[in-house]
Amino acid sequence: MEPAPGAPPGDRGAETLLGELERRVQEVVKASSWWERHGVDCAILALSLLALPAGFLCLRFENVLVFAVGITILGVCHYTLTVKGSHLATHSALTESKRWSKILMLFFVEVCTAFPAEFGKFSHVNMHHGYTNVVGLGDSSTWKLPFLNRYVYMFLAPLLIPILTPLVALERLRKVEPRAALRTLGLISLGLYSQYWLLLHASGFRSPSSALACMLLARSLLAHPYLHVNIFQHIGLPMFSLDKKPRRIHMMSLGVLNLPRLPVLDWAFGHSLISCHVEHHLFPWLSDNMCLKVKPLVSQFLRDQRLPYNEDSYWARFRLFLNHYEELMVHAPPITELVGLQ
């Protein structure tokens, strides 16, 4: 990676650092097997699909414990497919085939998640990754609801995510061409109706209202950590203006945070959203398993170069947001002045 001619010395140094880190990561990737690059994560997603029948059948029993097991299976599988699956598919990290990447993105984002795939890819890949923590562009501001108080936002608002997601999708469809809108509407309807039909015919629910209530319960199982993770890992870290944003390696090391390994969230959300978020933002094309594999290399490299490598616990971030909600989630974030990096 050669710096642009006439670039400031700081820019050339940042490009050189990122180029060296990319070279080392590429060496690890080339030395890794297909199973390490893609197979582990594909297997997790396949197991989640295969576990769904057991979840639906558990709901046929009147035993409370068995019913709870069924809800847990459906809820964890739902988030594995909609969060981990959609995230990896959006970044084309599940396969090296462009055709299959497109098919998988439509399946995980539209059928499973009930959201327009192209809009999801643009807002996440183009905006959030392209302008991480740049105010007004990729600063996670879509997660801010300043009219809600801290307790409603942190404890009650997550329960609305399963309802709001398809409603926001319908609003977005007004802005796309009719052919694409019809395809997306058809795939979203297929995903929602399939679960509803299975609850009636496989799980034995006797009324539409009870089936819909069960859908909401399963789709809300991990809604709280889903919302929390999306705000914990960027909001509260340095924010930049578009005209003074730092070079990529500085932007990602300053504006991204890793949470510790959490088994359930590692499985359902993926390493790239939990303990390897810094690695994911530096190398978004890597699968979850590869992010975990290069984590020691990336963390040591950043520390050797005296660059930030942000890590904090889930509960520490939770307390931070609860105690400083007004500052972090209501007021406009201050712009960070990066003296010496510009």
Derived from helix and strand composition plus strand pairing, the structural class reads mainly alpha
Average pLDDT, all residues: 94
Count of DSSP-assigned helices: 16
The total beta strand count reads 2
| Portion of residues within helices | 55-70%
| Whole-angstrom Rg | 21 Å
Which segments are poorly predicted (pLDDT under 50) over 5 or more consecutive residues? 1-9
Helix and strand run: HHHHHHHHHHHEHHHEHH
Share of residues in strands: under 5%
Give the strand order of the largest sheet, numbering strands 1, 2, ... along the chain.
1-2
Q: Please give the alpha-carbon distance between the first and last residues.
A: 19 Å
Q: What does this protein look like?
A:
The chain has 342 residues and is mostly helical. Helix content is 65%, strand content 1%. The protein has a two-stranded parallel ribbon with strand order 1-2. It is globular, with a radius of gyration of 21 Å.
In short:
Helix content is 65%, strand content 1%. By secondary structure, the protein is mostly helical.
What's the helix and strand layout?
Elements: H1 9-30, H2 34-58, H3 64-90, H4 98-112, H5 117-129, H6 150-156, H7 161-173, H8 178-201, H9 208-219, H10 223-232, H11 248-255, E1 257-258, H12 263-268, H13 277-282, H14 288-304, E2 310-311, H15 314-323, H16 325-330
Parallel strand pairs: 1-2
Provide key terms for this protein.
two-stranded parallel sheet; 342 residues; disordered N terminus; mainly alpha; 2 strands
